[in-house]
Design brief:
heterodimer; A: 278 residues; mainly beta; Immunoglobulin-like; seven-stranded mixed sheet; 20 strands; B: 203 residues; alpha/beta; Glutaredoxin; five-stranded mixed sheet; two-stranded antiparallel sheet
């Protein structure tokens, strides 16, 4: 009788521990594998960690950039972190332009994409094992769109010694090359507005014959309209078609400039009216 | 002479192209159209001068459309505003073989099943009405005032999500614009970025 009771209690504990199992590092989601990765295997209090959600998408399927363009929705993460940890914003790699018809274009990613997030660990963070948990929500589309979500968790020790993770170093390094860099101080970007266009003038010290502009704010440019680029001796002008939804003047055009070799830069260009404004 | 005529024809063709690429901006005249509804009746926008007209782009398979139908939000709006004299056209521009394409009888069954109450559903499998308005997403909402001027172009509300739980915390732009316009006030948010699935056009 007593043995039976022990067994029942043991079984209950088993159930409880299954119920309270920590979320996995990796899940097979709809048309994608989604995995949480850390750039480090151990962290010191007062340091910054880099944590990323790695999407491996089935061929033809895509997810979205922070400005998804004409349709779609960017992934969003909600964090559950130990005391003293705080998550920053997603570091969005440069997107691709995905044109579905002559009128419609979205911004997003195919294939493999790592959405990295800096996680600050305060100097007063407790040492010992730390579990970083997040709920990721995203929309994945091909011809049709499917909303999806996953709970993911990665654990690592907080202690006197920080350690890089050799297993993820390559992935984070490759991702760093896709991240937009700050706009160089010697470069200059201004925008003139005409009735139907926003004309971005770029001065980068060399002629530029190919580049793409990705707007960070929705509803400013016609995403699907061809971008007209004209090389100048020290840069280029890129003519963007205004969105029909742009009914109020804008003071700043924010976006990401992607050059022919894939290098990307953050752009924040003041908007003036007509020609002759510096 | 022959050459001259050719040039004139080319210029004429170009003019048509330019017209069809006209902006669909709030404050400008709404493009006129004629379309056939799910009951086979021809609907002509100009016949509704003197009334407010709402256009709602629709795809019953799209998670964002489902958010507003499975919650009853869209039906509620349709009933509330048509009761106040608004003409509500749901528009389906999904091409045959794509998500959201339905036959007229399938659409009428869906309306019954969902308790939807638009004035009519305009069947646009060729996409011409969608292209005329440059409808981008499902849903994508437009409001035309009694003078035929477009007064709203954009999203249904301010929460870009497919989650029904967000509706109660959302500002409904369509209801807000209709309320303001009917009270004789200018529309505060006349252009917003629509959110949802891409309209499944033929081309």
């Amino acid at each position: 009788m007593r043995a039976l009771l022990v067994r029942v209690i043991a079984a209950l504990f088993c159930l409880l521990s299954v119920g309270a199992a920590s979320p996995p590092e990796k899940v097979q989601a709809k048309h994608a594998q989604v995995e949480v990765l850390s750039r480090q295997t151990a962290v010191r209090p007062g340091q910054e960690l880099l944590v990323g959600v790695h999407f491996s998408l089935e061929p033809g399927w895509h997810i979205y950039w922070v400005n998804p363009g004409d349709s779609g929705q960017p992934p969003a993460f909600t964090w559950q972190l130990p005391q003293g940890f705080s998550a920053g914003e997603i570091l969005w790699p440069r997107p691709e332009r995905m044109q579905s018809t002559a009128q419609l274009a979205d911004y997003g990613y195919h294939g493999d994409v790592l959405l990295a997030v800096p996680v600050r660990v305060s100097p007063s963070a407790r040492t010992g094992a730390a579990a970083i948990t997040l709920e990721a929500k995203w929309l994945i589309c091909r011809e049709v769109c499917l909303p999806d979500r996953a709970q993911l968790q990665v654990s690592l020790p907080v202690g006197p010694e920080a350690r890089d993770n050799p297993a993820t170093a390559g992935l984070f390094a490759a991702n760093a090359k896709r991240l937009p860099q700050p706009f160089p101080a010697k470069w200059k970007a201004t925008v003139q507005t005409t009735k139907d266009s926003l004309v971005v003038s770029l001065e980068i010290g060399r002629t530029l014959s190919q580049a793409g502009f990705f707007p960070l704010d929705p509803g400013q440019i016609d995403n699907a309209a061809p971008q007209k680029i004209e090389a100048t001796p020290r840069g280029a002008t890129i003519t963007l078609t205004k969105s029909d939804l742009l009914v109020k003047p804008i003071r700043v055009l924010r976006g990401v400039l992607v050059l022919a070799d894939g290098t990307a830069y953050h752009v924040e260009a003041p908007v003036g009216a007509g020609k002759g404004i510096k | 002479m022959r050459q001259v005529r050719h040039i004139t024809l080319a210029a004429g063709a170009l003019a048509v192209l330019v017209v069809s690429a006209l902006a669909v901006r709030p404050g400008e005249p709404a493009p006129d159209f004629t379309a056939v509804d799910s009951n086979g009746k021809s609907q002509h926008l100009a016949d509704y001068k003197g009334k407010y007209v709402v256009l709602e782009w629709h795809n019953q398979g799209c998670p964002y459309t489902k958010k507003h139908y499975e919650s009853g939000n869209m039906q509620h709006l349709q009933k509330e505003w048509t009761a106040k004299g608004v003409v509500w056209f749901t528009v389906i521009s999904s091409a045959p073989g794509t998500q959201g394409f339905v036959t007229p009888s399938q659409e009428n069954d869906y309306l019954k099943q969902m308790g939807a109450a638009p004035t009519a559903v305009l069947m646009d499998p060729g996409g011409s009405l969608g292209h005329l308005y440059q409808a981008k997403t499902t849903p994508h909402m437009y409001i035309i005032d009694p003078s035929g001027t477009l007064i709203y172009n954009g999203a249904i509300d301010d929460h870009r999500s497919s989650d029904q739980a967000d509706i109660k915390n959302s500002k409904n732009y369509v209801a807000a614009a209709l309320s303001e316009a009917m009270a004789g006030k200018p529309v505060t948010d006349s252009a917003t970025t629509p959110y949802g699935c891409t309209v499944k056009y033929k081309d």
